[in-house]
User: What shape does this take?
Amino acid sequence: MKIELEDIVNLCKRRGIIFPSGEIYGGFAGFFDYGPIGAEIKRRILNEWWKFFVSMRDDIYGIFPAIITSPYVWKASGHVDEFIDILVECKKCKSRYKAENLLEKYGIAVTDFTVENIARLIADNNIKCPKCGGKIGEPRRFNLMIEATVGSVKDGSSVAYLRPEIAQGMFINFKVINIAMRATLPFGIAGMGKVFRNEISPRTFIFRCREFEIAEIEYFVDPDKQNDCPYFDEVKNIKVKIWPKDAQKSEKEAEEMTIGEAYEHGVFSNKWHAYWCGKALEWLIRMGIRPNNLRLREHLETELAHYALQTFDIEYYFPYLGWKEIVGIANRTDYDLRRHSEHSGEKLYVVENGKKIYPLCIEPSFGVERVFLAIITDAYSIVDGKIVLKLKPKLAPYDVGVFPLLKRKDFVEKANNVNMLLKQNDLITYIDFSGKIGRCYARADEIGIPFAITIDHKTLEDDTVTIRFRDTREQIRVSLNDLVSKLKDLIYHHNSINFDW
Ligand code: GAP
Assistant: This one.
């Protein structure tokens, strides 16, 4: 069965996962609200990210930088001048398009994002407005940063920007963190939070929005040691489709190989870059995404951001969109630390063994909404005509459902006691007293609850319950005394049962 975007959008709306913001006023393009189920799933994705990339490592420091900071930051970083898309407008109906998307509609892939090239492609292919057939006007550069007015006086000096990436928060705080944490190279600074971009045409549900979340790491390495990566063995055997820029140019397919092989073939700008591509893939696979649906694609020179020497996108195969970027891993060199040093006067280098070093920076950057969409798309399945969201237990909105078989008072009382027992042991539960057990299971399956506890006649006699497994529908009987430890074992070390993910 092919999954369509509507399947995901409908489920998300119907079950309180994600829906357009401000819908009672007709919506507001590019902005979304997370409902109770979506908020839990997202919170868990973010927690897993932080745990894997920050808490479980000794070389990465997590921070929460401000959303709005000094506007000088964005001048120095190059965003005021270079953070742009090419905009085109229909001369007749005034509809506006991101040029790249408009051309894509006509089957033309843009690889050179200059105004001149876009103008040529539009003229050569006689591109017209898809809405009214009108003539398309001259392409122009459009800055994606959203401005905010700060302070009580509105003039040029009060203009600030909502951050379009978290990264600058890590660069401007580089020195203070380096000193406060007594960090030595190599080390990283991680941050996550909301970012804002004035996308010309937000579309495809949460794939391209104007407010979204990024989780990213700026990992700083001594340029003389960029191929000394002591952790490389952790990732060298990860196998995935890799599509270097030369293969794309000569129209060769992406080739399956290990990160270690690709590094040996000189695909990556350095060993740390290869390592971070591997680590980002490892985390996505741990979150339940099938490795077959992931690939690493190198940016062509014409696609590179103004700060990047080399970038790889991790693309996910969305059945309704094709291969699309969900994570980017860039080699930003020492560009940002040097720019902020020049613009601020604060020298952002480290001194190690008497040597002044401007470290180079590898940046894995995760678009959380896109990762979220990939995770639920990969988990979406139909079993006996019904939706089952096969999320990893650690990402499910609830750990366990509690369902009394009957609405009778003694069943309800027992279910309440079991529910309380589980909550007191830090398990997030969902209780449903409707007494229609088949429907309870179906409702739980749809939002990915991995386990369901049923309170039945036998429970009242001997304090045992059944645990039903979402994916296999197998049921086992467990004593209430063992229930908490059994569930925790299943959630955190689900080796004891053969799940089909
Ligand atoms: N600091 C680097 C940086 O911001 P980026 O490629 O511009 O890099 C990072 O953004 C990630 O954010 C992308 O890999 C993508 O997954 C996600 N992303 C970018 N624009 C987005 C949008 N309009 N809506 C949702 N996610 C977006």
About this structure: Residues 21 and 27 are 6 Å apart (CA to CA).
